[in-house]
Design a protein that fits this description.
Largest sheet: 4 strands, parallel
Distance between the termini: 33 Å
Shape: globular
Structural class: alpha/beta
Radius of gyration: 16 Å
Order of helices and strands: HHHEHEHEHEHH
Strand content: 5-15%
Number of helices: 8
Length: about 180
């Protein structure tokens, strides 16, 4: 077993099985460098090109630490665009497809009628993937509770700041717990 093999990580066995089923055997450099730290609950700032495996790098530790018995949102992934948010949510689904304990991910973003998203948010959601503008709207409507969030990912943080989301990001982060539980 090599150091860059996913099986060398202390990951939930069902996640390892899902990775194997998906054909994920060896970690990419960004995964090998960041996963061991994130699995221990450490904060990480990482930068990588498109296709470098960033979503698995932050997604696998999130999924590993989710408590499926809780109905609270435990992880928040912020994305600058609807397309990236949809892609992230789809990847989370793939990583958990064969889990015995179901982990539910929901994506919310502008460009889709909000009533559909409001309806989906009435179901259990463990991981929320969101664009900042839509999430601020949902928070103002008091339909999303971020008090159980233990992990926050700012995917393409530089792009979100470049797009003018600084105020929205501050507003969102102020509604997340100051300390992880």
């Amino acid at each position: 077993m090599s150091q860059t093999s996913f099986s060398s990580l202390d990951l939930n066995p069902s996640l390892l099985q899902n990775l194997e089923t998906l054909g994920y055997n060896e970690m990419t450099p960004i995964q090998a460098q960041s996963l061991p730290f994130m699995l221990k609950g450490k904060d990480v700032i990482a930068q990588g090109k498109t296709g470098s495996g960033k979503t698995a790098a932050f997604g696998l530790p999130i999924l590993h630490h989710i408590n499926p018995k809780s109905d609270k949102i435990q992880a928040l992934v912020l994305s600058p665009t609807r397309e990236l948010g949809q892609q992230i949510a789809k990847q989370f689904f793939k990583f958990t497809k064969y889990n015995t304990d179901k982990i539910f991910t929901e994506a919310v973003y502008g460009g889709e009628h909000i009533s559909k998203q409001l309806s989906r948010l009435t179901r259990t959601t463990h991981i929320l993937v969101a664009t900042p503008g839509r999430l601020v709207d949902l928070l103002e409507r008091k339909v999303v509770d971020l008090s159980g969030v233990r992990t926050v990912v700012l995917d393409e943080a530089d792009e979100m700041l470049h797009m003018g989301f600084k105020k929205d990001l501050e507003s969102i982060l102020n509604q997340c717990p100051e300390k992880r539980s």
